[in-house]
């Protein structure tokens, strides 16, 4: 149906649509010069298909408006998956080249999918396959694609995709919506209500609305715990600090936002798990950005008390680590053996573990598992007190085919090995990326000279950071005030051991009105390559004179010699962020609050290559730094 609107576009639709299946009723115009091809059924197949004109040959230029309208049943939503995507992209933006616009706010009078020249499009797509989303989902029963090509002729072949209609009730949140709210839910463990279920962000799997705040309140029975597993989080692409994101998920270990924060999540994650310390948990989802993402899908589970018969060790293990442990063999369930042990923070917050028969030699063909289960924001930290395993005399440097101790953590919902230790060198401390960690010991050889190992373990909430004052508003944030200490040290989590993965820590420095902050990094080894961006999967450290971004400093990563950074005002923020890929030794630094009038003869802090020492004119400052260096290294 062509619109009679006076805003008639001059372009004429001259295109033959090559579709891989017949399509029903040609239909409603979205823009005055457009005609629409409607998809209202898959005709008994699981999926239907659609494609750009002339696909797989290059599409013609001057396509003013080719429309694809998908109409689902009232209880369904539309799913679009591109199997190939190649639309010419102008170097500046999509609007200057060819593009595919996505409309899904197709509400108002008229039939479903009927929009006009005043309708707002939600997304604009162009480029190659990596630029296309994995899937598109409509928030309602209709979705419209508008394909446009400009005057430039290119070799771009366009797109081909599949569509299907999905029952939107599959994405209902298994809670009780609080009356008078748009997306606040209560989850309680009472009566006949289930002890587990699912929860979603608004409109999931479509994009969530902006300017929205949703709260999810969990109330378990006394002595029970609340476990939430985020199967998928897709807010924005990139690796920005969560403190700089407008769309964020915060998890509080209690009934309200005054409780300690145990997780702050942003960007994109999979398989992230949180476990409350008590029967209450609050999840708060805030979206204020102009570019909303797909949101999140999660499961919740009210776990029984640790000392109940329902929470026997084998079940607790499977609830926490999932099927990944099942491949490790039946010995994992044999927790009654002295060689297979569980350590739960409900029982004790610290202790020691040893290899069998320590300090005498462990038996040949020894195979042990040690599982650690924390709660809240707790991380497991292991400090090696003694380590002496059998190793062949052939001089090999790796740990293959020899006695070894391996550490596993949970990454993307699966077990991943992060460290392997062998020989006689005392390992540095290790730390989990969450409230769970597993050790696997294989002592196949042994000898009369070996002792095995002795390890001190602890469940910590301070991420192994012993300086500063920890804030409860964030999972890992520390404050340094000049009114408390004018100088001191700070370090990355778990220092002097490698920092944990999936970790963001922030260090806030507050000086007096006439002071500035001076940082002297004595060690720096943060996994990554300049410019330390997400494309290279780099961990990084960044600095700012403000709570928000500060482009003066940029990001720091890699291995660097000693260097200095100085603030321009009395406030300074240092952010450390690691991903789930690799880890490094981290950093150690000395901080000083100095009067703003103090001058340094030093190269620019932008010269990261030189990283040479500042020449400090004040003799007292020189003595203070020398003393702190001595304390740091001894």
From TrEMBL:
Pfam families: CUB (PF00431). One of its GO terms (cellular component) is plasma membrane. Residues 1-29 form the signal peptide. Residues 36-166, 183-303, 339-460, 476-594 form the CUB domain. InterPro entries: CUB_dom, Non-NMDA_GluR_Accessory, Sperma_CUB_dom_sf. Keywords: Disulfide bond, Signal. It comes from the Eukaryota. CDD domains: CUB (cd00041). This is CUB domain-containing protein.
């Amino acid at each position: 149906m062509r619109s009679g609107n006076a805003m008639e576009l001059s372009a004429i639709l001259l295109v033959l649509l090559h579709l891989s299946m017949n399509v029903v009723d040609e239909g409603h115009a979205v823009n005055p010069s457009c005609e629409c091809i409607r998809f209202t059924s898959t005709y008994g197949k699981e999926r239907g298909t659609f494609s750009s004109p002339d696909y797989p040959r290059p599409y013609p230029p001057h396509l003013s408006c080719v429309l694809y309208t998908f109409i689902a049943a009232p209880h369904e939503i539309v799913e679009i998956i591109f199997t190939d995507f190649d639309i010419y992209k102008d170097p500046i933006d999509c609007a200057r080249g060819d593009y595919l616009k996505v409309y899904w706010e197709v509400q108002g009078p008229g039939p479903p999918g009927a929009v006009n020249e005043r309708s707002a499009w939600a997304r604009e797509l162009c480029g190659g396959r990596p630029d296309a989303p994995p899937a598109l989902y409509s928030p309602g029963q209709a979705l419209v694609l508008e394909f446009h090509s400009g005057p430039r002729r290119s070799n771009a072949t366009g797109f081909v995709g599949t569509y299907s209609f999905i029952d939107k009730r599959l994405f209902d949140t298994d809670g009780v919506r609080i009356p008078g709210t748009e997306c606040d839910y209560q989850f309680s463990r009472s009566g006949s209500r289930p002890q587990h279920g699912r929860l979603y962000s608004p409109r999931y799997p479509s994009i969530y609305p902006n300017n929205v705040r949703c709260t999810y309140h969990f109330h378990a029975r006394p002595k029970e715990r609340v476990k939430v597993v985020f199967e998928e989080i897709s807010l924005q692409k990139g690796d920005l600090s969560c403190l700089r994101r407008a769309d964020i998920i915060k998890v509080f270990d209690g009934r309200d936002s005054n409780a300690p924060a145990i997780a702050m999540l942003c960007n994109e994650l999979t398989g992230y798990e949180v476990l409350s310390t008590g029967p209450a948990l609050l999840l708060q989802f805030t979206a204020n950005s102009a570019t909303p993402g797909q949101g999140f899908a999660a499961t919740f589970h009210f776990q029984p008390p640790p000392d109940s018969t329902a929470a026997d060790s084998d079940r607790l293990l499977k609830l926490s680590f999932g099927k990944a442990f099942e491949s490790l063999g039946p010995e994992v369930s044999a927790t009654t053996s002295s060689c297979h042990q569980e350590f739960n923070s409900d029982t004790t917050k610290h202790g020691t573990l040893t290899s069998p028969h320590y300090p005498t030699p462990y038996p040949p063909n020894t195979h042990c598992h040690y599982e650690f289960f924390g709660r809240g924001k707790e991380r497991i930290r292991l400090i090696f007190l003694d380590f002496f395993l059998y190793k062949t005399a052939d001089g090999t440097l790796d740990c293959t085919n020899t006695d070894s101790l391996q550490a596993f953590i949970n990454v993307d919902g699966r077990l991943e090995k992060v460290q392997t230790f062998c020989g006689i060198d005392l390992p540095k401390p290790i730390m989990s990326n969450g409230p769970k960690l597993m050790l696997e010991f294989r002592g196949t050889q042994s000898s009369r000279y070996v002792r095995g190992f002795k390890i001190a373990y602890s469940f910590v909430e301070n991420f192994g950071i012993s300086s500063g004052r920890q804030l409860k508003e964030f999972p890992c944030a520390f404050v340094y005030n000049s009114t408390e200490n004018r100088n001191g040290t700070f370090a990355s989590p778990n220092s002097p051991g490698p920092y944990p993965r999936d970790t963001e820590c922030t260090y806030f420095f507050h000086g007096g009105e006439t002071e500035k902050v001076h940082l002297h990094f004595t060690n720096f080894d943060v996994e990554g390559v300049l410019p330390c961006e997400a494309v290279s999967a780099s961990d990084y450290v960044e600095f700012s004179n403000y709570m928000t971004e500060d482009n003066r400093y940029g990001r720091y990563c890699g291995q660097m010699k000693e260097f200095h950074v100085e603030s321009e005002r009395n406030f300074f923020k240092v952010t450390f962020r690691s991903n789930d890929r690799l880890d490094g030794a981290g950093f150690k630094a000395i901080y000083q609050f100095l009067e703003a009038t103090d001058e340094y003869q030093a190269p620019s802090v932008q010269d990261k290559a030189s990283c040479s020492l500042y020449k400090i004119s004040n003799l007292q400052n020189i003595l203070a730094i020398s003393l702190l260096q001595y304390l740091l290294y001894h």
